[in-house]
Automatic annotation (TrEMBL):
Organism, scientific name: Ectothiorhodospira magna
Domain Glutamine amidotransferase per the UniProt entry, residue ranges: 6-209
A Pfam match: GATase
Function in brief: IGPS catalyzes the conversion of PRFAR and glutamine to IGP, AICAR and glutamate. The HisH subunit catalyzes the hydrolysis of glutamine to glutamate and ammonia as part of the synthesis of IGP and AICAR. The resulting ammonia molecule is channeled to the active site of HisF.
Descriptive protein name: Imidazole glycerol phosphate synthase subunit HisH
Subunit-structure text: Heterodimer of HisH and HisF.
Designated gene of the protein: hisH
Main location: cytoplasm
InterPro entries for this protein: Class_I_gatase-like, GATASE, Imidazole-glycPsynth_HisH
Taxon lineage: Bacteria, Pseudomonadati, Pseudomonadota, Gammaproteobacteria, Chromatiales
SUPFAM superfamilies: Class I glutamine amidotransferase-like
Length: 215
């Protein structure tokens, strides 16, 4: 049986992620919400969702013995990071006065700040919350069937800044352009919440369920 492990590190309600994956999964797929390292290491695919603060996320991962497990699985099988599960793949986050992260993808996490304005010069609210477009930078199997500039649902105050441009798979504008999706080998990660992004998000999750890694 094909197994997808959804990493549960005790932060946020992950039920909507599990339900969306079950809806998108082909017959015979087991979607397992787990915090057990052995379950994650045995899974065929790994989904790493999350919300909250980077420091709390890293503390929870370390306490559960999951940090090294994620480093290993991200390099060896299809791996999907969602929201905070994208940010802590980087080396370091500015959040909480500075937090070292997993260091799987070279780069940093930066805050939007308080002076963002739209095209009319009006102040933009932080966090960036609601529907926004994702511009696909290059082709990827997870973009299959998703139109350019499709809208996804976002909730975040920080964004990733990868060290190298080739890993940038999608960008979004919120007073400034920022990286909203990255792809590298077996890893695809996205800042938005596909489980809350209606049919477009389900298409991305369905694509992940059939993806074997690579571009």
């Amino acid at each position: 049986m094909n197994t997808v492990a959804v990493v549960d590190y005790g932060m946020g309600n992950l039920r909507s992620v599990v339900k969306a994956l079950e809806h998108a999964a082909p017959a015979g797929t087991r979607v397992l919400l787990t915090d057990r390292p052995a379950d994650i290491l045995e899974a065929d695919r790994v989904v790493f969702p999350g919300q909250g603060a980077a420091r709390d996320c890293m503390l929870a991962l370390d306490q559960r013995g999951l940090s090294q497990v994620l480093r290993e699985t991200a390099l060896t099988r299809p791996f999907l990071g969602i929201c905070m599960g994208m940010q802590v793949l980087m080396d370091h986050s500015e959040e909480n006065g500075g937090t070292d992260c997993l260091g799987i993808v070279p780069g940093r996490v930066r805050g939007f700040g308080v002076h963002l304005t739209d095209a009319r010069g009006e102040r933009l609210k932080i966090p960036h919350m609601g529907w926004n477009q994702v511009r696909q930078v290059h082709a990827h199997p997870l973009w299959a069937g998703i139109e350019q500039d499709s809208r996804f649902y976002f909730v975040h105050s920080y964004y990733v800044e990868p060290a190298t441009l080739p890993v940038v798979a999608g960008t979004t504008d919120y007073g400034m352009p920022f990286t909203s999706a990255i792809a590298k080998d077996h890893i695809f990660a996205i800042q938005c919440h596909p489980e809350k992004s209606a049919a477009t998000g389900l298409t991305l999750l369905r694509n992940f369920m059939h993806w074997t890694g690579g571009v």
